[in-house]
Amino acid sequence: MSSNTPSPYTGRFAPSPTGLLHIGSLLTALASYADAKAHGGRWLVRMEDLDPPREMAGAADNILRTLEAFGFEWDGEVVYQSRRYELYEEALGRLKKQGLVYPCYCSRKDWQAAARMGADGFVYNGRCGKADYRPSEKDLAKTPAWRLRVPDENIGFDDEIVGHYTQNLACDIGDFVLLRADGFWAYQLAVVADDAEQGITHIVRGQDLLVSTPRQIWLQRCLGADTPHYAHLPLLVNRQGQKWSKQTLAPALDVSRKEKLLRQVMSYLNLPAAPEVERPSELLAWTVQHWDMNKVPKTAVCTETD
Q1: What is the dihedral angle through the alpha carbons of 92, 182, 189, 56, rounded to the nearest 10 degrees?
Q2: Does domain 10-82+234-302 have CATH number 3.40.50.620?
Q3: pTM
Q4: Annotated binding residue at 104?
Q5: Within a 10 A sphere around the Cβ of 241, how many other Cβ atoms?
Q6: Residue 48 marked ligand-binding
Q7: Would the annotation count 181 as a binding residue?
């Protein structure tokens, strides 16, 4: 629940085990760690393993081993979203009691065929949420998705890197899914429920998630949760301007090149060059000592040079 008492800084790094860590992951890990430790705060690690069909076998363990190899030490136990379904059930139950969600029987193919594009894909037209909608017997035989109603109003926030960002959720997004028809929990609900339960006060993550933030703020309000402070980091991109990811064949971090890779992402964050060190943890300490979010670039950084 929301409170008026400021909480101590608690940040987090929340990778998804759909692939191994790459250079973009390292930048997010380093920046979120440095911001937390520079504020005397805690840095948690959460494994966002919500989508088993997309996960890579062994990736979760590999991610933790890689973080350790690069000198990272997290506070507390690693949390796995796949073990927290009761938390998400409880949150959805509260939203049901408030009448803020509704079952959706639409097939993705059907509703998207008539939909317009918005800020993050197609905008759902709210068909199943209309007061006069009555599902057919055929619909009732299906397992529905559950959608959250969104307001026709601007929801904005001040990001520490990007500046002010706003969306009209009704126009830009539409009512969005919290529980998928296949039984898997949607990212938006899980991340909000977890951040609230873990007491996350500051979120430092990539700008690819900027578009999700107004949805998460609306969901926080619906659940009576505090809204964290946000800082969305520049994306690392290839020569074509594409974000480095599994889809763009981002190479996995090579632990035999730990120091070189850490120095590389430190330079992307505009940190001063560090002296010679004996172990990666000394580079992390240097980053914390010289951390300045105001110097972080506001736009994408190309990692490929001619």
Answers
A1: 140
A2: yes
A3: 0.94
A4: yes
A5: 9
A6: yes
A7: no
Match 């301007």 to its residue by tokens.
241
Residue 188's identity, in one-letter code, is Q
Is 102 marked as binding a ligand?
A: no
Annotated ligand binding at 29? The verdict is no
Per-residue b/e over 158-168, b at no fewer than 16 CB within 10 Å?
A: ebbbbeebebb
d(CA 294, CA 271) in angstroms, rounded, equals 11
- Was 187 annotated as part of a binding site? yes
Residue 113 annotated in ligand binding: no
* DSSP one-letter code for 72: -
Is residue 222 a known part of a binding site?
no
Q: Is 171 annotated as a binding residue?
A: no
Q: What is the CATH number of domain 84-228?
A: 3.40.50.620
pLDDT at 4: 56
Q: What is the pLDDT of residues 179-189, one digit of tens each?
A: 999 999 999 99
| Annotated domain spans of the chain | 10-82+234-302, 84-228
Could you tell me the end-to-end alpha-carbon distance of the chain, in angstroms, rounded to an integer?
51
pLDDT per position as a tens digit, 71-114: 999 999 999 999 999 999 999 999 999 999 999 999 888 888 88
